[in-house]
User: Fold these one by one.
Assistant:
Number 1:
Amino acid sequence: MAGNSFGQGFRLTTFGESHGAALGGVIDGCPAGIKLDVAAIQAELDRRKPGQSAIVTQRKEPDTVEFFSGIFEGITTGTPIGFAIRNTNQKSKDYSHIKDSYRPSHADYVYEQKYGLRDYRGGGRSSARETACRVVAGAIAKQFLSEVKFTAYVSAVGDISLSKPYQALDFSVIEKNPVRCPDPQKAEEMEAYIKKIRKQGDTVGGVIRCVIQNVPVGLGEPVFDKLHAELGKAMLSINAVKGFEYGSGFAGASMTGSQHNDHYNEDGTTKTNYSGGIQGGISNGMDIYFNVAFKPVATIMQAQETLNSKGEFVTMQGKGRHDPCVVPRAVPIVEAMAALVLADFTLLQRLNKHQI
Amino acid sequence: MAGNSFGQGFRLTTFGESHGAALGGVIDGCPAGIKLDVAAIQAELDRRKPGQSAIVTQRKEPDTVEFFSGIFEGITTGTPIGFAIRNTNQKSKDYSHIKDSYRPSHADYVYEQKYGLRDYRGGGRSSARETACRVVAGAIAKQFLSEVKFTAYVSAVGDISLSKPYQALDFSVIEKNPVRCPDPQKAEEMEAYIKKIRKQGDTVGGVIRCVIQNVPVGLGEPVFDKLHAELGKAMLSINAVKGFEYGSGFAGASMTGSQHNDHYNEDGTTKTNYSGGIQGGISNGMDIYFNVAFKPVATIMQAQETLNSKGEFVTMQGKGRHDPCVVPRAVPIVEAMAALVLADFTLLQRLNKHQI
Amino acid sequence: MAGNSFGQGFRLTTFGESHGAALGGVIDGCPAGIKLDVAAIQAELDRRKPGQSAIVTQRKEPDTVEFFSGIFEGITTGTPIGFAIRNTNQKSKDYSHIKDSYRPSHADYVYEQKYGLRDYRGGGRSSARETACRVVAGAIAKQFLSEVKFTAYVSAVGDISLSKPYQALDFSVIEKNPVRCPDPQKAEEMEAYIKKIRKQGDTVGGVIRCVIQNVPVGLGEPVFDKLHAELGKAMLSINAVKGFEYGSGFAGASMTGSQHNDHYNEDGTTKTNYSGGIQGGISNGMDIYFNVAFKPVATIMQAQETLNSKGEFVTMQGKGRHDPCVVPRAVPIVEAMAALVLADFTLLQRLNKHQI
Amino acid sequence: MAGNSFGQGFRLTTFGESHGAALGGVIDGCPAGIKLDVAAIQAELDRRKPGQSAIVTQRKEPDTVEFFSGIFEGITTGTPIGFAIRNTNQKSKDYSHIKDSYRPSHADYVYEQKYGLRDYRGGGRSSARETACRVVAGAIAKQFLSEVKFTAYVSAVGDISLSKPYQALDFSVIEKNPVRCPDPQKAEEMEAYIKKIRKQGDTVGGVIRCVIQNVPVGLGEPVFDKLHAELGKAMLSINAVKGFEYGSGFAGASMTGSQHNDHYNEDGTTKTNYSGGIQGGISNGMDIYFNVAFKPVATIMQAQETLNSKGEFVTMQGKGRHDPCVVPRAVPIVEAMAALVLADFTLLQRLNKHQI
């Protein structure tokens, strides 16, 4: 209810503030008998970590995960997997200037209103640092779902966007550039643009596309917990996300039924895929694909007028090391949340048929 | 887990297929002491009902709600509110032609794969008829939240869309035309277009905008259950929805931080509202606004080739009385789901502070 | 959260007051493909219904269940099963004398304190009439678990109790006497005692023993949701229940480990069964057995002094037709709740192992 | 669903095996603004820890709790409280003799059947070591409910039991003897008996009584989540518990209604309290009291024949340092679980009334 858990069968609960002792979580419901590759989990964390390239925050946080339980001799035991990531780089002093002030378009003001107090040393629980825990759990979900392929990439930064459909792109390029864009030329343009924006002390938004392949038919629950509804919630729960669309998305709203309907092949696949791999909330075996829109990071390196807790206007300027554009580091987060949703529904689908 | 419940504190569970005896639901967690206006609940149902105008399905279903419990002398008692809506117009014969065939872009095929069998008489549980129950519960949620104002309207049908911001529109116009569009001229264009599309035996998609006003500060839980994440899930759980965006939405992805940041007034309100009334997943007291994209209805009155359960191609043509465009009737559903989300978070917010 | 649902995978939500229009419920998560015997469900309801013998309440309530959804051509579809039982015998006038008074050892006073108001026409939601819905759902759970055998019986009424272990009893006798006691001589004693107590305008408590046989190994979750913990909660949630013990129970507290340990046979069964079929919260394949203690019904046909809503003492005397002893009619309720617990854990156990 | 969480509003999730790196948990839903006394939390852990007296296990485990999050400047922030307790004394070698054998009346066999594998180094997740996490969370719940008084004590060890009602006992004596029994003479007898039993290499069971005082009226949800049903589940989820009874308990089953009914005083209190402070599942403001029966510890220091994983009989003898009687150390666990239940229902009760 307090909203720090995600999933029902495969369930992640996270804890931890950006400037506390540690972040971490508990994965409850991971089935027994999965051989875990811990290095692969750490590799996913490294895709998210600060300081990995010239276009992301230059903070140095190693983000090393320690597992406490639920794994024995390298195999999951079916019991809860507890883990923590120590905060090793909390420079609390960096944040003293914001103790009594509410940063524009940050959650400082609403936290104080909601709880009556807040951990003023940073974003606290609203910091995107929390997503490191999601990446850990998502990496385990990926290993559980070893047959399913999750691929996310940056499809837009500011006004620079990919026009090619995902089928025309070479996914092996994604991790070869710091933007995580599968079109090398666009990647260069995006990188140059991010650097320019950073030089201006500004930030910029972007879009991530995610493609899920080799999904079995039948995942998703038909009414409130439709597969795309949970994917949408999962994505919208990531910091800075403003929109989600799947399949034909917003463009589908201007189409006619005769254009939009996907016609069957004899094997149950469809000739087109405006449906985005989901019919009535249930996977149909075709590729699932969706877009996630991210707003520009609110912390900018320019002076801004804002409010303090006494109701006075004060001038504030972002300090420290922040991301000029969040999407390159958000790619593994999008994949992680997608994997958590699919892992959960994979388990839940085991409940739907009578077995004698 | 089977996904027929929505909400935690204010929780709706629904049941019922399009061609069974009845649909209905249980609202668990509605606080005691709310004076209910039952006529107002029925009026919301009437906004959703078939046959209400020339541009929606001409089926005649009165959709009368019967309450079983939880209300005593016109006041909620805090105990669960059970209700049902009888299906009075199930013409099962209308559907015999689809018994063994999978309608394109419908859920027939995935239901059969998921459950091993399906109620072939209609959409069963995947029918939008299920949303009548949401409208009942949403109407009660609105009465619980009597201070909050929920307004949804059609902002696009096919390529015809409103360009004006919601602040420039006269909401009192919405219910005065069958499209539920607050711009009278655009409403006429949309109506003419829908009629034309229907004459072609085709269907068309559209967009609904929803505005929630007078929301208290502090609603929403900060991590997975962000206010906009639950709103997104709520909307994506409505039949035919393909996308959700709030505040600046997808357009925000191409903006810079210096453009996008909302600056404070002295009273904690903001000068702009790109945030869409939500910061870090928590309401900030500004208007919440979002867009919901609907695909065109899959049932068209044109012959289509499709698959039957033997894996053969067959020709199928929609029969009966279907909506050429779903958005006019979806307006009250969007409002209902928004009200359910806000009711839930209003209750949950009572838990967050220590009271001595 | 408001506590009207039970179970996670196989989940029952109930609604309805004793004197409203109807009681009913929704079973969400019943797997698809179960052939339902509706007559068998009604037969379970008939075991619980008033007026069935000379030693229970003489109210006439047919308690006929109507199913709304989730069943198609006699088979469960995997979608929620909605149902209702009409209240046909609400003599609201019978209860006018208690409108402003709190019956001793009833929930009138706490309801009014909890909710600020109450449906004064009867017990409202605290009436044991609610358990009719549990019997419906339990009957479906039994059909889902067709291999498992649930047997409950009355093992004590007042001071008259069975001393024989359940293995020495003939379960086929249970339904052959109105007390539902498998020892014919004790049954006669109990029946005579109940009649005597009723003649005195008094009531008496009793104990029900339940035995669950042919349970697969592995049901139950190891920490908070231990199989016996959920069984205990299930039983304690039945009206008038004051205690629960399983296996050796309270007697086990005075034993030594060398006496109490159950030693294995070669096939994994055990020579003794002090454990009551459950080890560490997980079924071990041996018979599960437990006792449930019921207090005497609070409504007695004697004058009692009690309090009214003005804080004054008033004299009150039970009217109408009440049970002098609740245990004969509670036997099917105990079985129903046991079946709901086992159905739920049977589903949940599908989630615990990796399947490749 | 995997059963490692307890509570809805005030929710504890635990992780950790007896022989892994650490145990720990997350408390989600603890309200913001509670000043925490960390020393008092550690003091509760010390009441549970091994080695505290001559009649409990002589293992040396300091059981020091480390908090990771959710507390800022000594005050709860409303965000999840993550914590861990390192396992510092895992002598895995001690357990090699049980790697392939199933200890009688332990969960070894059922774990292996349930999950397909198990952490053979000890009880794993079925070890009572898990309850240390409950004590941490319960200590925080107690501080949240500073007005409510939780007192548990040992009321029986083997056949030695207290006959006095709790009102006649001096609770200040409880912590002054190693048995935690408020009757000094009985405490001595119990202590002597436990020492004798240990010398025999045997173990013995016992009973704990818990009294909860100063409870507000209105806690508990009326149907499935009755206050005593959740208390019962909470207690039955503690290792080795075989039975739970509240108020008149099993003895109430042989009483008549005219004896058992609690009559009101003018202020809404009652003259007697057979109800045990709960009516219809809802607290009535009177003392809540209940008994919890514990079986003898299964690990005995005598040779026992048991089964190995090949289906062969082997002789096994308990090694190491085990409790001859579990109840002295279980006293703080019972209190902790009671506090968790009350904390949860205290929060949930905030949802039940309309507030304008």
Note: The mean pLDDT of chain D is 94.
Number 2:
Amino acid sequence: MSQADDPSARHLTEEQLHSQLIYDGKVVHLYVDTVKLPDGSTARREVVRHSGAVAILPLDSDGRIVLVRQYRYAAGRALLEIPAGTLEVGESPDVCAARELQEEIGYRPGRLQKIGGIFVAPGYTTEYIHLYLATDLVPSRLDADDDEFFEVLHLPLSEVLARIRRGEIADAKTISAILLAQEYLK
Amino acid sequence: MSQADDPSARHLTEEQLHSQLIYDGKVVHLYVDTVKLPDGSTARREVVRHSGAVAILPLDSDGRIVLVRQYRYAAGRALLEIPAGTLEVGESPDVCAARELQEEIGYRPGRLQKIGGIFVAPGYTTEYIHLYLATDLVPSRLDADDDEFFEVLHLPLSEVLARIRRGEIADAKTISAILLAQEYLK
């Protein structure tokens, strides 16, 4: 049973009274909504509506995890992350996962397993990331977006865990995927 | 060595050429920046500048994890999460962690250990969450914000992991904190 179906949570619900579009960008669609709180009073909610995303934990034929390093302007630094990308309009998460893998690391997944999903910042964005494990990788490259630059690294799980502990891997979706895939990793 | 200091990442850097404030809200401060890419071309970056946050994994005297259930308007459902909150202006993460714990679960931490930190959505937000483990909890309550409604649950680690696997816990900071605290949990 998901939280959404949990009748015990119903009394916590906030109801939309009004919604105003502030900015309609490429990634960020910002709204300011007025909501009715459980006690009947009202509050303002700033909401980034986002089309959703996928992130894929790829395992190579040696059982190493394939990561990408890319500069993240909002973070102000390069981050080491699992491959990921935003859903295009009407695109299914499975199709998006296979596309992003080919664009970012040059492989398509022979096998793609859903391992979960995460809300990244539910205080102000609707973004939900579908998480996958990709195995049986087959070389296949698609061109990445013009404004994306990557380095690809293959690291054993022990090294990925060490880099997480040292703070060198500090990306929420990457750390979440490692925990969710733990039963498949050695 | 952090990624920021990694000389191998320098050629990936994006340089700010221009920044325009679009919306200056309570939580969301939205900018559209123009950046110079590694190949010399330019691109637009939508950036939510955020003051940063803390999230705390509290362990009660029975070793159970203390979680809060709250309705998350952006997610459209109630989520089960570790206590968390946004840094106030000039507030240190340690002070913020102790404050949020008292507001959300009615305890102050006898011991507070930094276990790491995460970027939640580095594609478009600067938000970085400082992650803590809180133990030796002492009853102490501070009033929560008027627009926040919580339920508090104490669950053993095995139950938290089962709910993560079933998708009933789907919050990135909560799942990340569980992995980062693993050596302290049993």
Note: Confidence is low (pLDDT under 50) at residues 1-5 of chain B.
